[in-house]
């Protein structure tokens, strides 16, 4: 058989099979070929480099991008600063020092003259810029009480802040009439800065065999506190001594008051700079000054007596034999301008200007161990009833000498010590006003404690604390706070001279409330002293 072969067709240009064609079976037959093996060079190379053999391709790098650019820039203007402007700004300013010196020499005398004139001027006295937002909010921070005293229906008769302003004390007794000279009472203190303050558990409780009518912390020794008793005695306690806190007392002698002591004050001792003296005020008509003795005794150093002859005749004194009877003194306040001058309030309704330098002897004979002098110099226009409280302004100048007084007629009188008639008479209450205090930081602000009601016989009152700001109104309180629950009066209040935003007030329920005053009552405004002087002068004119 001839073999077949491929031949190129010259016409078509294609290759064609010519010759005999083999059968299909010869072209396609089943067969088994041996397998082929190709050795991997990549695996051997990876093993030599100790690399993973999980894939044959390199690591694919990926990048995530959330923006079309990789830089950003903040711009607040649409133009850039000119380089020329920067260079001009940075160039040193050329100063003609010779001409400047000549100018200063020419105006020197005139400038010094104007500076001296401004230095002596009082046009901007008291001016302060106040950028804070003002508000009239008053918040109750603490409600303090001693349950055992409340169980006896005792009232808070006086409150006082210690020298640091962190401790408040109150005395318990009775002010609504009767004879409680033998009833046990208390003096309680709370440290408001102490952690875990319990408002119904005082830090210190001192039991006293007689009602405590008045209280006063020492002005510089935080642990010393003096109290005046219903029995007429004076006692000084050291609150740092827990066993026996009594360190001085008057005892019952011929010099002791014969009526309740309604106010006590600490005075500097002119003879001993490291000692103090105590002043006491009583409705027996005597104002007594006591000195400390080594045997824990308070001895009488000097004294004054207010008698009927010293004040104008009035219907309130007709029951006395004229010139001989004592006039009951209820309150006292020293002038902040002259420490020898003080104001007293008396049961006859008068406020009296007195002098500690008085030398005239009082006509009232008391059997005292020291002669008692007559201090009264001037009587002011009376209230319609007994005066319960007086308070001298800590801001007045010599030309003003202002003080406040309040009493059972529900009025507050603003007085100048230079004239007998009040500058202002404010009807704050329909019934009694028990206490008035001038703010220690605001010349135009004062506070008053009142009781309202319709029953004088049973002393049925609703207690209020009134905050008055002459800058807001010269006729009505800026804020009136309801303190006592039910119909019970507020008897006493005191500003805190160290933490000036705090005001403590005690009431007939046996409760002391500590109020936080807003900046409106504690930050002095610009020219506030001038406003007070202007107010006084307008009323006087």
Q: How confident is the prediction overall: mean pLDDT?
A: 80
Number of strands: 31
Largest sheet: 5 strands, mixed
Radius of gyration: 47 Å
What general outline do the C-alpha atoms trace? extended
Q: Decide which structural class fits the backbone.
A: mainly beta
In DSSP terms (H or I, runs of 4 or more residues), the helix count works out at 6
Question: What share of residues are in beta strands?
Answer: 25-35%
CATH architecture of the domain at 139-145 and 250-278 and 292-538: 7 Propeller
Q: How helix-rich are the residues, as a percent range?
A: 10-25%
Question: What's the CATH topology label of the domain at 139-145 and 250-278 and 292-538?
Answer: Methylamine Dehydrogenase, Chain H
Q: Low-confidence runs (pLDDT<50, min 5 residues)?
A: 315-323, 453-461
Strand order of the largest sheet: 12-13-14-15-19
CATH class of the domain at 139-145 and 250-278 and 292-538: Mainly Beta
How far apart the termini lie comes to 159 Å
Oligomer: single chain
């Amino acid at each position: 058989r001839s073999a077949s072969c491929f031949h190129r067709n010259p016409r078509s240009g294609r290759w064609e099979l010519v010759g005999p064609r083999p059968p299909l079976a010869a072209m396609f037959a089943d067969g088994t070929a041996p397998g082929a093996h190709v050795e991997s060079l990549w695996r051997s190379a990876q093993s030599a480099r100790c690399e993973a053999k999980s894939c044959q391709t390199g690591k694919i790098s990926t990048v995530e991008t959330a923006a079309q650019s990789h830089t950003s820039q903040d711009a607040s203007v649409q133009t850039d600063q000119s380089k020329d402007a920067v260079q001009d700004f940075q160039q040193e300013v050329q100063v003609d020092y010779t001409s400047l010196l000549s100018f200063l020499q020419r105006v020197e005398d005139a400038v010094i003259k104007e500076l001296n004139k401004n230095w002596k001027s009082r046009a901007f006295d008291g001016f302060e810029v106040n950028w804070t937002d003002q508000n009239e909010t008053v918040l109750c921070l603490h409600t303090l009480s001693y349950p055992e005293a409340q169980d006896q229906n005792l009232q808070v008769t006086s409150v006082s802040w210690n020298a640091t302003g962190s401790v408040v004390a109150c005395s318990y007794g009775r002010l609504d009439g009767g004879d409680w000279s033998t009833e046990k009472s208390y003096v309680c203190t709370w440290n408001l800065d102490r952690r875990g303050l319990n408002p119904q558990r005082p830090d210190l409780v001192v039991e006293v065999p007689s009602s405590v009518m008045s209280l006063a912390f020492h002005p510089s020794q935080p642990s010393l506190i003096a109290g005046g008793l219903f029995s007429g005695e004076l006692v000084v306690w050291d609150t740092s001594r827990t066993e026996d806190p009594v360190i001085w007392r008057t005892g019952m002698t011929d010099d002791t008051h014969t009526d309740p002591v309604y106010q006590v004050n600490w005075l500097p001792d002119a003879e001993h700079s490291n000692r103090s003296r105590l002043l006491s005020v009583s409705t027996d008509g005597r104002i007594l000054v006591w000195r400390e003795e080594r045997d824990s005794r308070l001895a009488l150093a000097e004294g004054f007596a207010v008698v009927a002859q010293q004040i104008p005749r009035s219907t309130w004194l007709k029951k006395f034999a004229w010139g001989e009877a004592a006039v009951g003194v209820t309150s006292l306040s020293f002038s902040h301008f002259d420490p020898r001058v003080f104001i007293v309030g008396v049961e006859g309704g008068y406020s009296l200007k007195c002098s500690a330098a008085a030398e005239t002897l009082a006509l009232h004979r008391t059997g005292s161990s020291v002669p008692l002098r007559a201090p009264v110099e001037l009587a002011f226009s009376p209230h319609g009833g007994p005066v319960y409280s007086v308070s001298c302004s800590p801001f007045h100048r010599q030309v003003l000498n202002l003080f406040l007084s309040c009493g059972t007629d529900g009025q507050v009188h603003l007085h100048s010590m230079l004239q007998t008639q009040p500058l202002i008479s404010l009807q704050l209450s329909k019934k009694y006003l028990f206490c008035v205090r001038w703010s220690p930081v605001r010349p135009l602000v004062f506070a008053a404690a009142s009781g309202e009601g319709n029953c004088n016989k049973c002393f049925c009152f609703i207690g209020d604390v009134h905050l008055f700001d002459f800058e807001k109104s010269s006729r009505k309180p800026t804020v009136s706070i309801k303190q006592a629950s039910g119909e019970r009066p507020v008897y006493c209040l005191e500003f805190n001279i160290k933490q000036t935003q705090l005001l403590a007030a005690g009431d007939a329920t046996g409760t002391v409330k500590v109020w936080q005053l807003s900046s409106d009552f504690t930050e002095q405004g610009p020219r506030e002293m001038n406003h007070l002087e202007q107010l006084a002068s307008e009323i006087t004119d």
